[in-house]
Design goal:
Layout (H helix, E strand, L loop, with lengths): L1 E4 L1 E4 L2 E8 L15 H29 L2 H14 L2 H14 L3 H17 L4 H22 L12 E5 L4 H6 L5 E6 L7 H9 L3 E3 L13 E5 L4 E4 L3 H21 L16 E6 L5 H6 L5 E5 L1 H5 L7 H14 L4 E5 L27 H6 L1 H14 L4 E6 L5 H21 L8 E6 L2 H5 L1 H5 L4 E4 L1 H9 L17 H16 L3 E4 L10 H7 L3 E4 L4 H9 L14
Parallel strand pairs: 3-4, 4-5, 5-6, 9-10, 9-16, 10-11, 11-12, 12-13, 13-14, 14-15, 15-16
Antiparallel strand pairs: 1-8, 2-6, 3-7, 7-8
Helix pairs in contact: 1-2, 1-5, 2-5, 3-4, 4-5, 11-13, 13-14
Amino acid sequence: MILLQGKGVSKGVASGPIYFFQRPSTDITKTAVADIAAEKERIAAAQEKSMAQLEALADKAREETGEETAVLFETHAMFVEDEDYVEAIMTTLDEERCCAEYAVQQAGEQFAAMFAATDDAYMQARAADVKDVTRRILNNLMGIAEGGIDSDVPVILAADDLAPSETLQLDKSKILGFITAGGSGNSHTAILARTMGIPAICGLGDTLKQEYAGRDGYIDGETGQISIDPDEITLAAFRTKEKKQAEMKELLQSMKGQKDVTLDGREMMVYCNIGSPEDVAAVQANDGQGIGLFRSEFLYLAANDYPSEEDQFQAYKTVAAAMNGKRVVIRTLDIGADKQVEYFHLQKEENPAMGVRAIRICLNRPEVFRTQLRALYRASAYGKVAIMFPMITSVWEVKECKRACKKVMAELDAEGIPYNKDTELGIMIETPASVFVADALAKEVDFFSVGTNDLTQYTLACDRQANDLGKFFDPHHPAVLRALKMATDAAHAAGIWIGICGELGADLTLLETFLAIGIDELSVSPSSVLPLRAEIRKSIAKTCNLDMLKS
């Protein structure tokens, strides 16, 4: 038996084979080959597999986000068999007597450069499509699994850590839990695990070895312990915990349909954080009252070029309609810092967490902002959509956002496109600056939502992604909780509601403090809704105190 100790970042237990995430290799070496016919057969097989994948993706997109996204995959499928593209591949094979991978890569680079060099904006955008199709064919040539997992059974997924774009492409139906060498409680892998309601352990470092691939792993997301090929005693203890977990899940089902209200009548809105339309199913399964944070950046991270207004509209509309009148708070584009998107061509920064990110990008690139706002307002005709601006530090930023909204509303009016003229506008409180001027900010918006991950980072001067800061990154710090109280007082004085959409919202040890502070809403991962509801329903708001705000 082998025991590994990491940091538990998503609770629960799970067991299954350990599988290491397959990250595509970008290094392709030109290799001479004798049997060109065999290489052509390999290419034909890769093309056939690529076509099947793209057809399946088109069907899925049509069902989940609409026809526009489906057409994109159908266009990609057509390019796989494009005569000029295929001829370029075959010419390189015949003339240079090289391996299939090199021939495909060269053709892809040639066509992408050709499209990018045109004066037509539409044709320039097609360069990204060529790159994506080429990457797909190369992955199939090299045996790299779509979605990073090539397994017939669900697995415990192991990796150094996963980038946001990688987590988006995972086949989630095959994941029992996560274990990572790096990462932190605020990493995207951890957030995904909590959304899915599965265990995750990070910070394993060099103890997580490739040689463990395929062996039976037993992970405990609460203790951070991993047992590989456990002995009978360890296995028996694990099975006992697994049974208790199943019993607790069954017990929590009784919370479905119940109100989120304390014993003395204080109501609390319990919403969910999601990253894609697919996550709505988890919100509904866990009986969330609404969506308090839809991370719209998933659309940008999953794309190879700026997502169109129609692509975004279909995604937002799908979520709004599925929630059937419940509030859906959609955060505008929040990239930069740890969420990099290649086609934005953001300059490398020494301290990206404090650089050009989130609302700063939107205000610097008004056309990108306008496209998203048009999609959001159009979607507001299909449900109770609220728009939220991230990384706000000043009143002038809010006024600029509102000015952009009014301009978009005027455009839609002129075009006769329906939308909700009373769409709520809110901001994220995630910097000390926004806390200190919360009284002024509250007069400009309909609600606040506190991003406790970033608020903790900026208040304590601790990198939220650094796993080795340990006790220094303390969301329970009195300074963080006092900031919450200041923002709440300012919100209520202006007559608006305030919520928490950071991970701290699901911390049951702080529920009474949140009640005492006066927080109106908690937006958490779907799997945290029922445990939170159970705690709310046995709490007495008037007896809660502010002791944790003391030094």
